[in-house]
Write a structure and sequence with these properties.
Shape: globular
Largest sheet: 16 strands, antiparallel, barrel
CATH superfamily of the largest domain: Porin
CATH class of the largest domain: Mainly Beta
Number of domains: 2
Number of strands: 18
Strand content: 35-45%
CATH architecture of the largest domain: Beta Barrel
Strand order of the largest sheet: 1-2-3-4-5-8-9-10-11-12-13-14-15-16-17-18
CATH topology of the largest domain: Porin
Distance between the termini: 39 Å
Radius of gyration: 29 Å
Length: 530
Amino acid sequence: MNKPLLLSLVAAALLTTNVSAQTMFERFQSMENEMAELKKEIATLKTQKAETEEEDSPAEDADEKKDSEDKEEAEDDEKEKMDVEEEIAYLQESISEINKATSGNHLKFGVDYRFALENLNYKMADGSEANNDAFMTNRLWLNMDWMATKNLSFSGQLAYNKAFGQRSGADTPASSAFEGFDWIANENAYDDTLRVRSAYFLYRNDTFIGTDVPWTFSVGRRPSTNGHLISLRDDDRPSSPMGHAINVEFDGLSSKFSFDNWVNGMYIKFCAGRGMSNAAPKFNNTPYTSVDDTNSNTNIDLAGLIFVPYNDGHYSIGTQYYYANNLIDVKNTADYTQGFDTVGGLHSMTANFVVNGIGSEISDFLDETTFFVSGAMSITNPNSDKRMLYASMDSNMNPTATGESKTGYSYWIGTQFPSLITQDGRWGLEYNHGSEYWRSITYGEDTNIGSKVAARGDAYEAYMTEYLIEDILSMQIRYTYIDYAYSGSNGFFGGTSGASMDMDTAIAFGQGANVVDTAQDIRFYLRYKY
């Protein structure tokens, strides 16, 4: 009898991978078509089984056992029936798994829950320390996807992120002023509110204006955190941005054009969005505030592009540029509660090189090792009467001029390799350095002591991710150490919170107790994702 081995292998492959189809709609269609084929195969097997049982009656069995050859034939028939029963059971189990995956329709929900325990420690410029020996958080992501047609889909994510036993971490007017800041609404452990982390539709097509260029268009609340490279240690699929220079929640649009038919993996993606709106509540006096009002800010907009000239799965090169205008800083007041100043714009350029598998079959370990190097540059474009990234006085207490542009740079290297103790785990080592006037927009980075890639100084990180139950339940231990050479790494863009001063200058300005010299985060988490 010919067994449906090929069909079984296809079913198994379909259940253990999601890369055979490019869209959720196509994946569901493939699974449902496969399920129909499996049902037909089961019906055929049951018919064959029934026919075999009719042929092998008890009387015939008794006669067949009279000689050894007939006895062997009876045993073969019995084995064949058992094989059929096993195959039916296997195919029925496959159908059950496909039913779970499709839920009978094209609406897909997913759950991603994480418990984290962290030991946080800060050493300030004046030698004082601040710490939390056991900071615990719950983070929940509820993912939803809907494929309405082959070309049009919707994706969304609701998020909850809260410290154990407390609804808000704000206990002073200075910090409460930033509680609802939109770039990190779901990245910090605020309260027990379920918020929208992302919500957008995606249109895709294989041709653009008659040309053989696949393209996409999307608008909404962007999936713009945990981007390329930073996603490795976060054990997430990367979002579009390069995490070296931007890692914040964002509202905007994007359009991607693929030239993979010409060069492996080549594409260009245009992005634009609004980081802050000059708007007031609906029933306020006016729907917006005057730009002449000293307590108002103009719209913050960002536009840029991502260009990947080559990516064959083994080697990849990525580049990114963006410009953000009307960036802000907290006003230089006693308690930082009087709003923000608009200070100017920022150019940002990033390039990286990634190797997925070192060498060519030198060893299994190197074949599964990833190595990357990334470089970035930032250039400020301050308003003529404002300072960006430097204070109003220099280290000699002399007044500084306004309107000066500052250039900063950063480099980042890292590797991720197979676990040394299990078959499926992944371990990693990373190092990054930032110069005196380096500035990224990475406030949403998943590091509670502050963004490591934003550091004006040196940052070191080691982590181990292990899978406890398949890829559903995992654990991670991560160590992050940041040695700041200058202040302002996690501030805004002006000369108040963003001013770059070395530790001695910060002490001279009377800021020794407020400027972090070194920071350390030891984190353990358990994560359920399905």
